[in-house]
Model the fold of this input.
Amino acid sequence: MTPAPPPADRRLRTALDRLRRWLLDDAYPIWATTGLEKGGGFQEKIGLDGVPTRDNRRARVQARQVYCYAQAPSFGWTRDAEAPAAQGLAWFLKH
Done:
């Protein structure tokens, strides 16, 4: 019989599970829809009301979001992660 993991390991595993659920269920979906302008790049920010702000876009946001969607399948996001990555990259390279 395998002993139960120490409390610190359980807390870490619980925190990682919550982070993964947030990433897959909340972050990836909203940034692939609300956060990605049709034919454009990623928004700079999405307000707490779920509406994108019209802040100037920084290059680092575009590159970070492209990278995040390129990595999405490895985290278990089963939707089409290639489309937001490709669209964001194309917009970034154009602008």
Notes: Helices lie at 7-33, 59-75, 82-94.
